[in-house]
Write a structure and sequence with these properties.
Layout (H helix, E strand, L loop, with lengths): L4 E3 L10 E12 L2 E12 L3 E5 L6 H9 L6 E6 L2 E2 L7 E4 L11 H11 L4 H14 L15 H14 L4 E5 L7 H18 L2 E6 L2 H7 L2 E5 L6 E5 L9 H4 L3 H14 L5
Parallel strand pairs: 1-11, 4-9, 4-10, 7-8, 8-9
Antiparallel strand pairs: 2-3, 2-5, 5-6, 10-11
Helix pairs in contact: 2-3, 2-4, 3-4, 6-8
Length: 266
Amino acid sequence: MSQIKEVVAPQSPAPDDIAVSARNITKNYGDVEALKDLTLEFPRGQLTSLLGPSGCGKTTLLKIIAGLLQPTSGNIEVNGKPVTGPGPNRAFVFQDFALLPWASVMRNVAFGLELRGVAKSEREDVAAKYIGDVGLAGFEKSYPHELSGGMRQRVGLARALAVDAKVLLMDEPFSAVDEQTRRKFQEDLLSLVENENKTFIFVTHSIEEAVYVSDQIAILLPRPSRVSEIIRPSGFRNKGADSIRRDSEYLDIVDNIWASLRNYVE
């Protein structure tokens, strides 16, 4: 197995600051080895992006962390406890929204709390807060078919936030929206990471997006997938959302990642 290379601010977080650990994860689909002996740690309260070419196992790893798939070998721990299936400490934001078409925005956002038996008035108070936080105040009674793609994705994000899971798993959540909406989502995500004190694990195909939103980027190589580099952007993180894309470090990291991945793109 190749040695993982750390670049840019290489100091690793202390063990107590690790929210999720993936240790020696292997996943086989019949004769196809999707992941092989993959080990990766996700710092608490930060956003880690999984970045790599199509088919490299990013979503597979995310679903294993969510407990939706079982690894062939290896183990996942969240806050030091083994993952054996889905649990309330993790919430999933799907690429395709996965909303209930027959339910209002309020009902969709409150649905996870409803499944947990939370009283209607309490769950609607919580849902209303997050509906407002994602910019959908006034649309509580609307239905998914009445919303744009970007608005539906905001509903999915609000639903994940409402259950107060400590780990949010996001599978290319912005890929189905237009470029302007995507940029606004990225800015909003930076604010959520700063204010929500949650751990975000974010799958994307976009190098620019990963560098823009991430505290840590794990670059995965084609299957059998393993982590080749861990990048921790640092110098521009406190300069404000409007300045990041013009920062020289941001531009250099984007170019360096592309240089690492270009030979694996068909």
